[in-house]
Amino acid sequence: MNPRRKNRLFLAVAVLIGMALTISLVLYALRSNIDLFYTPGEIIYGKGEAKIKPEPGQRLRIGGMVMPGSVKRDPDTLKVSFKVYDARAAIDVHYEGILPDLFREEQSVVAQGVFEEGNVIDAKEVLAKHDENYMPPEVEEAMKENHQRPAESYKTQPSESQGNGK
Q: pTM higher than 0.85, yes or no?
């Protein structure tokens, strides 16, 4: 092999290693900024065939409808808690801040926050449905399932009876 071919081969290998390293670093950096979308049923029973459940401390987004009669506001602060439900389960959401004007019971919402022990979402942001005709595809699919079962038919999750301290 002549020196010119060796240089080309070395250059090609160096470029491939550099690209692999760059892609790895970008994916590692993005990993901490990814918020996976879950429905309440997927949080309780697992997502997909592998039944993957979120772990405490994981950032995520949850979509569903606000359960009637579940909204509880603290009269002294901006803290509010409510339940988000779908066709299979209901999850508690705790939020501190001003809720969107369109937020109300039996309205679809998406809450972004951190999954905590006891199947509770500590939300940092709550989004309410803004247009009657538009809905993100994940939420639309969950809502189609949701309308098959009334909110009153849900049993209280075991975490509530254990007293999660909030």
A: no
Fold of 36-157: OB fold (Dihydrolipoamide Acetyltransferase, E2P) (2.40.50)
Residue with the two structure tokens 């409510």: 82
Q: Count CB-CB contacts under 10 A for residue 164.
A: 15
94 is in an annotated binding site: no
51-78: per-residue pLDDT in tens?
888 889 988 999 999 999 999 999 999 9
Closest CA to 116 of 141, 81, 146, 71: 81
* Residue located via tokens 């009669």: 69
130 is in an annotated binding site: yes
Query: Where do the structural domains in the chain lie, given as residue ranges?
Result: 1-34, 36-157
The Cβ-side half-sphere exposure at 15, using a 13 Å CA radius, reads 6
Residue 8, phi-psi category: left (phi > 0), alpha (psi -120 to 50), beta (remainder)? alpha
